[in-house]
Amino acid sequence: MLGSQVDPSRGRPHKSASRLLNEASAGVNRRSFLGILSGAVFLAAAPAALTACSSGPAPQATTSGSLAETVAKLVPAYKPLELVTPDIPSVKGSTPGFTSIPSSLVKSVPTPPGSGGTYTAMTPAWWAVPPALPQNSYYQAVNEKLGATINFQVNDGNAYADKVQTVLASPKDVPDWMVIPGWNLPPRFGQAAAGVFQDLSEFIAGDKVNKYPNLANIPTAAWKMGCFEGGLYGLPYPGALISDAIFYRADLFEELGVKPPTSADEYRTLAKELTDESKNRWGSEDVWTGAQIMHGVVPKWKQVDGKLQNKVETDEYRAALEWTAKLFADGSVHPDAVAGNAQQSKQRFESGASLMASDGMGSWHEALARVLPSNPTFNMQPMDYFAPDGGKPTLFRAQPAAIFSFIKKTDPAKVEEMLALANFMAAPFGTEENVLINNGVEGVHFTRDAQGIPKATAKGTEEVTSTYAFLVNAPIVNSMVQYPGLVQSQSQWEARQARNVVEDAFFGMQIQEPAKFGSLSKPFDDLAKDIIRGRKSMKDLDAELATWKSKGGDELRDFYAGFLA
């Protein structure tokens, strides 16, 4: 798990960061979850069991007016490090790729950064809780290198939201260091943060971060997501640039003599051609998520002639709905997907019952791990995105961070010590510190295979987990060399798409919507499913939009506009 990363692929943990949580809730074990987090998998995400299918963390700011300008003054200056050179460099923020594991490691923190402090830290786990100190030799080894002691309070990730709310309700119970995934941020969290947690901008805003070079190596966008109530409170777990793709079965495409589509019409035509019920083969899964990306649907709000349009009001959203409804009407979508059975979509795609599917980027290596042992010719690939007419697509950047940690208010010397510890934990791929944080001690917690990939020992499986890594993490890389060709394909694909990535109007802003708007958009989720399946029409969308406006949609629009003033 060298250089493990959250696929916070949509924001929650994404495959998108939100898909990650869904998978974790479904019973992902610790090692498989760590696999989800490894390499260049996301959110977006998210986690993918942390980042697979969610809309991402709720916005968290409560004051309006030039929010972007305010946030820009709070975050650290970005000073990228390249202690080891990737084989496939980043392009406009895409994930760099390493086609081999470095044979020698760099030391990024020359001496133990701590000064003997002892701190409690609360983190989630979607797997078996590891032994605590003093029984955990992994904790002992890392703490020794840190020159300080971190005592972890590891809690069930599936019940973590309740735990967070309970702890925050009693400030005396708040630990020194607290991890809160974006999807677990409670209502009015910004107010709680300002009252309980340390504003880190006092210590690392702008060039102040130069004291901590590994923290300065974290991209600016990830830091922005940790800003609440006019302060910088969250230490981020950075995510990837793009959270989702439309995948196709490249092995079966080659066998059938077809090529991936390059326009929306070609997709429908090809899906129809591939569908053969007698062979239990359908051209497509439900690709509603991919259809929205293909049609350039904005994450939430779009500026049109100086005014905001909600995504469900936009021409792009209508076009995506109409196209997807036609795809379903063609009979090209697997009948189980038509029936709403999304849980078995991966199994259908991996078995060849459906040949095109939309999923989070983290699904790629997960599928390879499941299928390659029994089907070594299995090959799934992501399509290059295209606009509906086959032209240049508009891709909106994924959430830049899905998990955050917060330092409780304390005296400046302790804050500086914890930031020094965080600098150690944020050491990038290819460093001794990164290997220690993610794998433990070689020969004790892991060994290496012929490719140099760390393999957990029995002790490592029991003791090593994402505790230190959840407190703060380095920018993600793709180093999943255990899957032949994956690093090249994934990093090169993301680099090609990166040229079309843009930021939406509220990218990098944490905005807390008033509680009265909490359920305003929910009817559109079910309505979209009904329209796509032909049970309702676009006239029903018009009627729902009128209801949405009268029940607060226009008021919500004005609320968001205030952050752009």
Automatic annotation (TrEMBL):
<keyword id="KW-0732">Signal</keyword>
<dbReference type="InterPro" id="IPR050490">
    <property type="entry name" value="Bact_solute-bd_prot1"/>
</dbReference>
<comment type="similarity">
    <text>Belongs to the bacterial solute-binding protein 1 family.</text>
</comment>
<protein>
    <submittedName>
        <fullName>Extracellular solute-binding protein</fullName>
    </submittedName>
</protein>
<dbReference type="InterPro" id="IPR006311">
    <property type="entry name" value="TAT_signal"/>
</dbReference>
<dbReference type="InterPro" id="IPR006059">
    <property type="entry name" value="SBP"/>
</dbReference>
<dbReference type="Pfam" id="PF01547">
    <property type="entry name" value="SBP_bac_1"/>
</dbReference>
<keyword id="KW-0813">Transport</keyword>
